[in-house]
Amino acid sequence: MPIVTVAERPDTWAILTDKSAYVVGVERADGDVRVVQWYWGPRLPVAALAETTRFPAPRLMASFRDPYDIDEILPVDGGRRWGVPSLRVSYPGGVRSVELAFAGVEQEADALEIVLRDVGYGLRVGVHLRCAEGTDVVERWVTVRNEGAEAVQVGRLDSGSWVIPEMYGYRASGVSGEWSAETALRRTELAVGETTWTSRTGTTGHHANPWIMVDSGEAIEEAGEVWTVALAWSGSWRMTAQRRPEGDLAVGAGFGHEGVGWQLDPGEVLTTPSALGLYQDGGFGAVSRAWHDYARRYVLPAGSEDRPVLYNSWEATSFHVTEAGQLALAREAAELGVELFVVDDGWFGNRMDDTRGLGDWWPNPERFPDGLSGLFDGVRALGMLPGLWVEPEMVNADSDLYRAHSDWVLHYRGRRRDTMRNQLVLNFARPDVRAWALGWLDDLVRDYGLAYLKWDMNRSLSQAGWPEAGERADLLWIEHVRGVYGIMDELRRRNPELRLESCSGGGGRVDLGILRRTDQVWTSDNTDARDRQAIQHGFSQLYPANIMSAWVTDSPNPLTRREVPLRYRFHVAMAGVLGIGGNLTRWTAEELAQARDLVAQYKRIRPIVQHGQLHRLVGDPGVTASALQYTRDDEVVLFAYNPFALRKQSPRRLRLAGLDMAATYEITSSDDEAQTGSRWHAQTLMSHGLAIPTWSPLGSDYRSEIVTLRRVS
């Protein structure tokens, strides 16, 4: 019974989860009717829900601002509202004031639609709420239907506004960065006014990610109340935290960005992506674990599967792809225990470098005169699954595709067509482009029996015109993304065993929308182990380890030129989905032997890492000594890192978290042989801790270790 009608208030509803309650309802005051959020926080008894609507707190009244509009779950541009709108519509004749009236509800056991109408212009607005069983995540989205006789222009349509309970202060947590330095965790006090995070690039973006966590400034990793809002969308997006001078805070989230609008013809419906809200009282760690569980259970297409250890050929061969060269790498990879071999860029068309060939998706006739069958038959003979890199949304001007279909790219008539990475963007809002892409993708998968596609996107949208669409051209900002979604969905439907990876120059397209149709993401083009620790730390705030692709590459690192020992590189990558991307034909016999042992070790701990509960135990990853813990059922895996000797004071012991306090645990493997086989009470491990050799003040830079434990009683 996750959605209930509140007793005494037939126009008020509550979503009840295991740990939280979310209460919304109709408020009638001063001749106005609004749908407001009454409460969001710890779960209340059913009998107490109506009490959240009693005696609304008084507010300072003045003729310059309506103090109540921030409570609305869908504030509009109209009436006495001057805050951030979730809905802005321009009606015929230039009328821009939206007046919505409550028109009823449509309720199911786990879903609710609150119906609002602007009767003067025939606009029907549905505010949808849903909650899956066994999760604390509340899902909201909005539908707008034009039931009038004339077209209207929608200038903004968010998935709704979330009200954060009043506190003396508000702190926002999120991630920011850039290409090769994604998902850096930032925490800062929210200033009075409007703070907006956005992407205008047409994709999720490297510089920010569409989620925010809000607390009073007192929450820590394992304690404190935290509210989160996340948007499931892979195109341009916008999230605004509006902190009012009188102390209120609301967070609005939606697709699109300023300056674009969407024409809605009579009978048409515009549906937003989902915005998801989560409350937890257990600190940032509890929030992360709740999001990880939700993603694995309700977002990912195959969230319960173990992800294979993969090898990718890009850093070894770049564009110089040949059958003999790839098979040489495949033989080395198979010897290490790799399970999936992925051929990256350079296998198709006239693709000798990044200036040409993109869009011509057939095997290069000089490098592969007999196609890719020989290569992938060889990969399968070595006991590995075959995978391939593709970039369906892009085209080079120097390609057969562009010469035949130059009108397929985003462009405005009479304007130049700027390239980035020598690429133009194909318009996936067009049905003919989508049909072309689905056709060759499906053929590739079927012809070569592919198990895996790495779907890349290496530039942002620019000159985003669609001349044939006329006044409706701005819809491409929505329909391009939905076109990508649709092709991925149909490709998986036709090929149920196929698995997909989302890549956009690294972590440029990571969000809960793309994850509904992909299995993992390429976290960053930066594979430097020390940099990756910080990147993976920020990534883990919302996303689980079983989607986080992490490669071991050569040293010095191809990007940073930093030298890091192989063991440390592996231990960092083993905290996610392990991959290898180095030139194995140049690794020494000692390196290959060590890598083989580490791959075998990863396979033993893989179920715990990929599906276990994460505790970020201590430290500033990549800067100071730090540690991670993954726990699943009776098994525990600890990762301890120390990048610098003697420069930062390390704790002498590592205190664990989240154990069964009544249980005893046995150390099943450790660098300290004297500890292996020893048994410990959980209370000792959590209160006193383990001595960690990696944290000794004596030793070299870049020390790391893995400790495993098992509950024995």
UniProtKB/TrEMBL annotation:
The active site is at D456 (nucleophile), D525 (proton donor). GO terms for molecular function: alpha-galactosidase activity. Residues 37-264 form the Glycosyl hydrolase family 36 N-terminal domain. Substrate binds at W179, D344, D345, R421, K454, W455, D456, M457, N458, C503, D525. Residues 628-709 form the Glycosyl hydrolase family 36 C-terminal domain. The keyword ATP-binding does not apply. It comes from the Bacteria. Gene3D superfamilies: Aldolase class I, alpha-galactosidase from lactobacil brevis, Golgi alpha-mannosidase II. SUPFAM superfamilies: (Trans)glycosidases (SSF51445). It holds the Pfam family Glyco_hydro_36C. The keyword Protein biosynthesis does not apply. GO terms for biological process: carbohydrate catabolic process. It catalyses: Hydrolysis of terminal, non-reducing alpha-D-galactose residues in alpha-D-galactosides, including galactose oligosaccharides, galactomannans and galactolipids. Keywords: Glycosidase, Hydrolase. It is an enzyme of class 3 (hydrolase). InterPro entries: Aldolase_TIM, Alpga-gal_N_sf, Alpha-glycosidase_related, GH, Glyco_hydro_36, Glyco_hydro_36_C, Glyco_hydro_36_N, Glyco_hydro_b. Its EC number is 3.2.1.22. Belongs to the glycosyl hydrolase. This is Alpha-galactosidase. The gene is galA_1.
